[in-house]
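Exercise 7. Predict the joint structure of the components listed below.
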Amino acid sequence: MSLIPARARGALSRFYAMLMKEFIQLRRDRVTLATMISVPLMQLFLFGFAINTTPRDLPTAVLLQENTDVGRSILAALRNTAFFDIRKVATSEEEVDSLLRSGTVLFAIEIPAGFERALRRGETPAMLVAADATDPVAAGSALGALEGVVQSALSRDRVTGVAPPAQPAFEIRQHRRFNPAGSSQLNIVPGLLGTILTMTMLIFTALSVTREVERGTMESLLAMPIRPLEIMLGKIAPYVAVGFLQATLIVSAGVFVFGVPLLGNLALLALLSTLFIAANLSIGYTFSTLAQNQLQAVQMAMMFFLPNILLSGFMFPFAGMPVWAQWIGECLPLTHYIRIVRGIMLKGADLTDLQHDGLWLVGLMLIAMTIAVRRFRQTLD
Amino acid sequence: MTQSAPDIVIDVAGLTKTFGTRTVVKDLTLQVRRGQIYGFLGPNGSGKTTTIRMLCGLLTPDSGTGSCLGYDILTQSHLIKRHVGYMTQRFSLYQDLSIRENLEFVGRVFGLEDPRAAASEAIDSLGLRGREDQIAGELSGGWKQRLALGACILPRPDLLLLDEPTAGVDPKARRDFWNQIHGLSAQGLTVLVSTHYMDEAERCHEIAYIAYGELLAHGPVDSVVRNAGLQTWRVSGEDLYSLATALGKLPGLELVAPFGASLHVGGRDHAAVEAAIAPWRNDPRYVWRLDEPTLEDVFIDLMSRKKDNFRDNAS
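Solution:
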């Protein structure tokens, strides 16, 4: 006992006191404890399985301009690969165009009329492939895979009898739609717009209710004749303006500094951005009604933010994720907003093309608001 | 408003509230008449704040019924809120808003026709003209309290619920505050005010004493004192502390409490009191004087009896 000097013993004991206190407080704060244990595991599993930079099952449309054995075997070969998921057999160029613009498909493969005959004559006919290159990563690796797939399909089928491996019997004419240079800025700027808005909007409202509770102002507020819906809308509305300002700045910078085109309607972009901002604010507000204090609210916002970044198609190709992860992605506002921004800015999409994503945003916002109003504690019980 | 008793503003019976296993308010019955200043007394944690919160709909009673301003406290709290000004124990206006902004906020929430004019009027009557743009968080305790009261009466409520409004406020500000309360009461406003201060209790038309969640006594101050039936002695002299220690152990004495330079000794059984103090009555070190019990004597007596009951029930 006397080996340790008295002063050091005192310091040790104070340290121990502090340590114990922190543990006790941590044990009492169940939410933080649960977050500390479950979040790393959950996210490791979630993202470990979900993220795959080599996209698979890319939604693809096929336009067969001739009905021949070659066409059918190419189609069958594409169906058999893991890369392409043939969602639509289109009947016209216009249909292909609209499918690409709305984001229903990321690829369109066109076999022109006279392909088989040209192939038999050894004329190296061209097969047309249009890829949605707004996400260059997804487009690039699939385009790279395509040639091999078709080549082996044709040789396995032995329809031609020619096709010496040294010289390709046909040519694949690639068309990187919407982003011909494959510039990643065209992908990243719209993604960043959504990501930044998500982060700031969530935090703004996630703190709003817990702040009132912690500062003691909630008691006065609840004693006044004001309803939960009024409180919620009153707290969300000012930040819609703030978010709109942020969006304006980012879009301006994107267009004027990074050279991102703005092909579509600016008013439509403004409208859908406002909707996206309101949806995120509602979700943040919902966290605020669920959390006990400001720290918990911020933790919830962070937990929600991470999948938004990783599963929305911003960082990694959406089409590369397994179906269950895509479903999680569908439930995140950012997923739909990235499609909207890419659609409007890069593809010139109109409201008809984007109504699906717009409706998702409305739905997510209404769900969040309903939970928030129901969860809002009108008493101090 | 109910037809039966238009003069009763607060009329509750059997109110009970439990948090977990702790019963904070037990079977509380209370009636407050229009225009009265009703004092709500009791030690910390006795259930005063909980009762006030149940009256204005901030807490839901576990059992019990009642009305506030003629509205059912269980089902019509949204209507009660429109006519009640509730001043919380802790300053609960926005610290980061100015005086004027806070008042205008309250005016708008209550749907006043002209919140700006109402706020201006309140600023004048509070004597805050010239400081209206000051941030509320920077105000001193007394001014915060004044602002909080101003915000409460801004929507012209019919009932004020004030939860320890003068805690931490200097005597001058306290006196001003009570003068204002009496002025409002004269205009027909009903005021329920909780406090720790005995001098404040004596400024109330009626009082209720609550401890351990139970109402122990209520009525006008003098009748509460009279009904207690206490015989009290004031003892002065040297070394009162050891006398108090000796007396404290004796049966028959429910009250042994030092008050400044004197000791208050008393009980309800007058014969027992006299018997208990007899050995010291002629002690030259002490001067004994029979006196009217004060309100505080009564409360100390009530508390000690209540505590004994608690102990008896527990064992």
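Discussion. Chain B is about 40% helix and 30% strand.
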